[in-house]
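To: structure desk
From: M.T.
Subject: fold request, one chain
Message: Could you run this one when you get a chance? Sequence is below, nothing fancy, just the single chain.
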Amino acid sequence: MVQIPRHQERNMQFRTAELKSAVNALLPMIPARTPCELMKWIEIAPTFVRVYSGNIATAAIKLNGEGTGRLMLDGRILAQILPKITQETISLVANENGNVVLKSDSATFTLATINDEFPKPPETEFAAVKMINGKLLKSALKIASIATGVDERFGYGSVGLQWPYLFSSDSTSVSMIKMEDGEPMTQRLIPADTVSQICSALPDNEDVAIYDSESLVKFRSDTALIVARLSEGKLPEVWTILDSIEGKSIVDIDPKELRNAIDLASITINPESERMIFRFEDEKTTIRTQGADKGESEISLSSSLDGDPVEVILYGKQVRKFVSRSDQDQPLTIKLDAPDSIVSVTQGKVTFLLSPIRIAE
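Reply: Done. Structure tokens follow.
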């Protein structure tokens, strides 16, 4: 690690709200407990605040402060102090005792610091992927991460970035969003827990440029920079599964009514089997569940069917997860070919794929 001279002048001033916002955005990247002491610190300079942690090679947010030098503070302690400061400005000054004095008009804190720097991200050549609105990208990443599972041997703990697709998969389901038309690029896997950290730091109201390499993915906007490490492995190209569904049974259904029906049916679901039975008919859909101790339920709601009536058994946990995060104002279409075939649930650019438990009797 590079040593910062102790005699270097470190004296800076910030607008409290700006520094607080930047620290809060980076806080999810600072682990509550870590064997790596360096990861709990946050680096502050007049023009930026930066962290280094786990799968985050570097994450920085631009500031408009004044002063000189750089210093390191405990990120979680700083995040507790800043919301309590009501004055518009604060100052950070390194004193001769090797501490940092944080001061506003009404409060003074003397905080520990260290004289180390974060390691620099690995040098690599990045290729441009896409420029996209930050709010849209964050929404897409959150949707794509819904189906992240736990079996990291197959990339199931990751979100696939294979522009124009963002997607994730586990042993029973897939969540996928297609951002635009175009041929898929090289697949990169972002660790699932890193996705929420990236979303926390990205701004809503700026365009974000995405770059990738074999080991890293970079997100850059006017005020934020995030470089994250990629996972190893490979996810199946799930859009080819979607292409294989002929749609012998196509159901149009109101997402609000479906969510309410699933919430009701879930009251008696058996947590051991998690079975939820769907019967799609001409003008209605029926959902049935049964629990050993809770009894059983049968909920009907209106829908329209194009094709053959069909009954399919799905994992209730996966169904509830997708429906709870679906857009309640956008039409929802369900497609399947047989009781034992993959079920697709589509809303605009978003698609969920569900595997049935078994052939319904």
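Reply (cont.): The helical segments are 16-26, 75-81, 134-144, 192-201, 239-244, 255-265, 316-324. Let me know if you need anything else for the meeting.
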